[in-house]
Amino acid sequence: MVVNSKSKICLLTQYAKEHPVVSADFSIQAAAEFIRSNGYYFVPVVVGEKYIGVFTELDVLHSLNHHLNPSTPIRQILDSNKPAPVYPDTPIKEVFSRLGRELLPYVVLCDYNDHYLGIISASHLLAGKTSEIRPRCISGITTPFGIYLSDGNLSSGSTDLGMVVSGFIYLFSILISLNVSYILLKSIYHLNIIRDIYYVDSLYIPLALLMILFSIKFSSLSKIHCVQHMSSKVIESGDVIRMESFYNTSRKFSSCRANYFVLVFFIFSFYNLHIADQLFWNIMFSLSAGICLNYVLKDFIHQYFLVSKPSYQQVRRGLRVCTDILEQYQFYPSVESNFINRFRLSGAPYLLLGSGICYLLLFIMKLILNWDIIL
């Protein structure tokens, strides 16, 4: 006798495996023979389709020790402390916890009327895909200390302090690149290699962008950035969280926000050319030219500067971040979050705070030491 449910329920039902059941009216002898002949350790017991307990080999031993009549219906010997079932919306982490805490090889899955649906074991959960219980969209930030992932309600990865320090480092690096490129071009101008100061003002931003891109390429940032792409794609695709899934994932991520960083440099580069005399037309030209150039070059820049093959340890750290945020999601899959909380969990406030601290310190030093630097 096998009970099949037609319920259209997602979540845990996708992991359920059909397992034969016996009626509560079965005799001890018939149930024991059923277990023996099929090689089972246990069999769920139902009345109609309603789950009432589990009959195991321990129950057979119990009946023998107490000299019970083999024709006794099994409903009379079922343990009153039957293994509690799980339901379709039970978080997966809770299922894992029960399997480990109660040392069970399985849990019984029922619908909300306690109608038997099947059994679930740890191997079923680990082998399955979890797209239905994952965030539909995941965003990330690359920091020198690792990746940061968030779906707007939950987050994992780099700490708040790490994000603040990252914001400080990023703005400091950008300002250093701008000033170094300007000083370098100014020195070339004074050597009469460049004869017009117009070229110094026009080229120092593109030169700074090149310096930043090469520093990313030859540092660990490009590798961490690649892990961030892999992590977001593995979570959104529903693949099993394991090393093979990461290595089989493309490094390219079409919605990567690093494109906007490059776009800003392009726009300011064109703006400094002063193609048009009027401010409005110069801004319009800068925007349109910057957007077009970014559209043409974004794939090239991404492939050759912003992402590179990560190390095994970096992928392992990314895998742990993915696992952590998915474990959180099992407890809070449908949390409604207000705008302020989503903005906080995006990581942007911490990056802005770090950048603001960096800018304020450099501005104070510029006033005190009378530095001639670009801010």
Q: Please, could you describe this protein's structure?
A:
This protein has helices at residues 28-38, 57-65, 92-101, 122-127, 160-190, 197-217, 221-237, 243-247, 258-271, 279-306, 312-331, 339-345, 348-369, and strands at residues 22-23, 42-47, 50-56, 107-110, 116-120, 139-143, 146-150, 155-157. The protein is mainly α and 375 residues long. The chain has 2 domains: 11-127, CBS-domain (Roll); 136-251 and 307-369, no CATH class. The protein has a 3-stranded mixed beta sheet with strand order 1-2-3. Strands 6-7-8 form a 3-stranded antiparallel beta sheet, sandwiched between helices. A hairpin with a 5-residue loop joins strand 4 and strand 5 (116-120). The longest helix is centred in the middle third of the chain and has 31 residues, at 160-190. The protein starts with 21 loop residues before the first strand and ends in a 6-residue tail after the last helix.
Structural class by SSE content: mainly alpha
Shape summary: rod-shaped
* Fraction of residues in H or I helices: 40-55%
The portion of residues forming beta strands comes to 5-15%
Task: Supply Rg.
Answer: 31 Å
With strands numbered from the N-terminus, the spatial order across the biggest sheet is 1-2-3
Q: Find the count of extended strands (DSSP E, 2+ residues).
A: 8
Topology as a string of helices (H) and strands (E): EHEEHHEEHEEEHHHHHHHHH
N- to C-terminal distance: 77 Å
Could you list the spans in which at least 5 consecutive residues all have pLDDT below 50? 1-10
For the report, how would you describe the main beta sheet? 3 strands, mixed
How confident overall, as mean pLDDT?
Answer: 83
